[in-house]
Amino acid sequence: MQLRKKDILDIESLTVDEINLILDTAEGMKEISERPIKKVPTLRGKTIILFFHEPSTRTKVSFDIAAKRLSADCISISASSSSMVKGETLIDTARNLEAMNPDIIVMRHSSGGAPNLMARHVKASVINGGDGMHAHPTQALLDLMSAREKLGDLGGKRIAIIGDIAHSRVARSNAVGFSKMGAHVVFSGPPTMIPKGVETYGADVTYDMDEAIRGADIIMMLRIQKERQENFLFSTVREYSRYYGLSEKRVNMAKKDVLIMHPGPMNRGVEISEAVADGPYSIILEQVTNGVALRMALFYLLAGGSRDGDTH
Fold first, then answer.
1. Domain shared by 62 and 95, yes or no
2. To pair with 243 at 20 to 30 A between CA atoms, which of 3, 45, 104, 137?
3. 146: enclosing H helix or E strand
4. Which of 2 and 211 is assigned the larger pLDDT?
């Protein structure tokens, strides 16, 4: 089975079958990263451009490693090193990149919708590496992969997503993704951090964190995104941590073998305690590991590979 899509721009445009295809392919890719020589010639001769207009550590490195493990030629461009600092428009940048005949462009941008604009002006496949407060499809896919590995079928599972929902593209993409897979999504956070129209994401809302996590199979914590807030939306960090921080005591309200997730970077001692972040229920580092395999799968599928194809 092949992925018949040019671009990966959001979760909304993916069907359940397409999501399962991506996750199944990613599970097959994990074995490559466990070999002594972590490289296969699958995408030799393909060119991948990482165009990151916004700072990133895990996501950018994950895409870079994924490309190299498939033997693709990978070129990184940052905002500070692109001609956009000289006033070049995004469309002109797209046209110039297109003229170099890349196969895949991974784009992160501070403006929502920028990857969609890029995709309309290039023949190359475009992967959204996170755009503003809009979407982060690859993070949601790796989160689905991590949860599915542990829980199997996600149908009927309860996932509580806690924190700065209003400014989180991860919250939006995960709510859509987990809902598509049959899970029950609950958002919780201060009223000032819950956006209007949040019901359209397919999630319930409660301002009481304890209510959100009671009986949860998965708890996903989000950091406070101060860089996207015009004004601080809570009185003190201590107060926020008291009402919306994940402690060991709160973890006990969830299911016995609850999964603790976080897209990173973590603010330890604020939204999550040290003991919980490093505790037995945390799969935060497994999310990072799965991120490489998931992005390898997307590169492979967008380049025309099939789930049953030979990646070796």
1. yes
2. 137
3. helix 137-151
4. 211
